[in-house]
Amino acid sequence: MQGLHGGFARAVSLVAAGILALIIMLYPVALSQDGATPSHGLLTLVMLGISAGFIHGVGFTPRALAWKWLFHPVLAWLLMAAGFVLLFRG
After folding, report:
1. I want to staple 53 with a disulfide (CB 3.0 to 4.6 A). Which of 10, 17, 29, 37 is the partner?
2. Please, what's the b/e burial string for 28-51 (b: 16 or more CB within 10 A of its CB; e: otherwise)?
3. Which residue has better confidence, 36 or 84?
């Protein structure tokens, strides 16, 4: 068992990043509530999570320590979870 670098964890990252990216690209109005513009800072973090999800999902592992932290799968999952909350808040 390889934990975060096993096939199941990578599949979770890739599927979550793909779904979130497609929703944001195809239906960006979902990000706004009552016609208000979403926070650009929060949206930037969500996009970072999506990027990290794709990077982890395709199997790339950065070598430099800073990139390992920035594109860590747990950070990607937390940021993508924030993206799903942003999309589906009531």
Report:
1. 17
2. eeebeeeeeeeeeeebebbbbbbb
3. 84
